[in-house]
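Deliverable D4.2, example record:
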Amino acid sequence: MTEGAFDLGEGAKLTVTETVGHASHNLSFQESFNSGVFPGDSAGTYFPEFGVVVPTTPPPFYLDAALASLDKLINLNPTALYFSHFGKANDAIQRLKDYKLQLQLWADIAEEGVKANWSLEQVRDQIIAQDKAMSLVADFAKSHRIYQKRFWKTV
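Output generated by the structure prediction step:
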């Protein structure tokens, strides 16, 4: 089953929505009491200490499918997002819309970099310069023992 609902009893329901793009198997779950959504990694990684989301784009990443999945989540009209990494965020619809713009920005920068024959480091530096979320977390990620490999290793 890729989409449907589970009756959890006592008026509780969990609705399942297929949200591929980040991964071909990603599912998101909406709970019925507060209309919050558990997006898995389809809505990025939330850094609550900075109030920003950073894209999760491991290969293979399918931009068009990811954007369509975000539209599905927006259409659920969620009140909150319960991120797998790292917590709850309010203003769910705006966060999802912002994430769509962020993914498109990254794609545009990558395309520009390919056309201009930029190195991976140059693409990364342009993403940090142009993406407000990345500029906020860059120093933190650079000094963090786990994130430094994710954000700063280019090969």
